[in-house]
Target: Molybdopterin molybdenumtransferase
Amino acid sequence: MTTPMLLEEAQTRLLALVEPLEVEHVDIGGALGRYLAEPLFALRHQPAADVSAMDGYAVSAGDVSGPWRIIGESAAGHPFSGSLEAGEAVRISTGALLPAGSKAVIVQEDVARDRDHLVMTGEAPRPENRHVRPRGMDFVEGASVLPAGTLIGPAQAALAISAGHKYLPVRRRPRLAVIDSGDELSPVSQPCAPHQIPASNGAMLAALARSVPIDVEQNGPIPDDLDALMTAFDAAADADVIVTSGGASVGDHDLLRPALEAWGAKIEFWRVAIKPGKPLLIASRDHGSRKQLVIGLPGNPVSSLVTAYLFMLPVLRAFLGASHPLPRAITTRLAEPLEPTGARREFLRGVWDGEAVRPLTLQDSGALSSLAASNVLIDRPAHAPALVAGESVQVFLLQNGGYA
Model:
C-alpha cells in the first residue's frame, strides 16, 4: 500500500494534468465568473480628454487667484464649445471636459459668485492641476488592463467595457459529471429504509461545483456493481471531469478503482494525508485529443465536501484558465482552544464571525449538521501542538449557506 501523499504535492500533480479548454469569445455578461484566456489591452484612452474631478470652475493655468468673468458652462456629456482667455471661467461639473485654454479647476467651496462674476474666497489648488483628471490617467490605448487568468467580476467587467471591449476571450465551460455510488444510498425520490441513507452527496457536490461556471450532470445513486459503474462512466464519456462519491477506499465493495481500470483509465495517484478525506483517488483517460480527469472522492459527506473543495474546485478553475486555481487561506485567531493533531493534516469545521473562529464540537466525517453550521475550514498541520484561545490559525472560507 502506498504512503499517503502530502496535500500540496497531490494538488500540484493533479493540476499538472489539466489542459485549459478551448477559447471562445462571449459578451461581457456571459464572461462573468469566468477567467480571461488572453491578456486584455485597452482600445482607447480613459479618460479620453482632460476632465474635471470636482464641481467648480475651470480657469486657465497661472490664473488661479481671480477674479474671473463666467462665460459659460461645461457639464458631463455637454462640453463648453468655446475657449478660455485669462480672467475668464467656465462653470464645470465632475467628469465634464475641460474647455480649451483651461488647465485648472477651482472647487466651488473656495469661490463666491455674483451673477457672472467670481472671486476667490478659499485657497488656490496646489498643484494647479490638482482637481483635473488628465487624458489617459486610468489607462492609455494599447496598455494591458487585465492579465490572462483574471477572474471576471463586476469591476473587471466595467474596466473591460471602459477599455472599449464588447466581447472577452474565455475558456468554454467545463462539462462535469457527478456520480453518486453505494448500495446503502436511497434515491431522493424514494423512502429511505433503516439500512439506507439518503443520497445527498451528489446534490451537494453539484451545488458546490456550480460556484464556478460549468455544465453539470448528476447520475446516481449507482449500486456497488462493476457493470453499473462502467455504464455510468460510459454515460459520462463526454465530460471533462468526472467526480465520484464513494467506492474509493479498500473495502470488498469499493469498486471504483477496478471499474476505472476496466474502463481504460489510468490511476494517477491514490490517498492523501489529510483528515477527513484520505482515500482520494485521481485517474485520467485519453479521450480523442483531450484528457478526461476522474476525481474519486470519499463517501462520507464531510470528507466528500472537503476533498471537493481542495481538489474538484481547483481543477474546474484550472480548466477555465484561472491563474490561481487553489483556494487561499486567511489568518484569524481562535475563540476557543484546539487539541494537538496527529499524523495527518486536519481540516476542522468552524464558525468565523469576522474576528475569531470557533471550532465546532462535532467533527465526525458523517455529521452533516455541523457541516451546514460551518462557514470555514480550520487548517491544522500534521503533528501540530495544542493551541489556546487567541492564537493564530489559518482558515479557508466556505460559501456555505446561512452563516457565510
Notes: The first helix runs from residue 7 to 15. The longest strand covers residues 215-222. The mean pLDDT is 93. The radius of gyration is 30 Å.
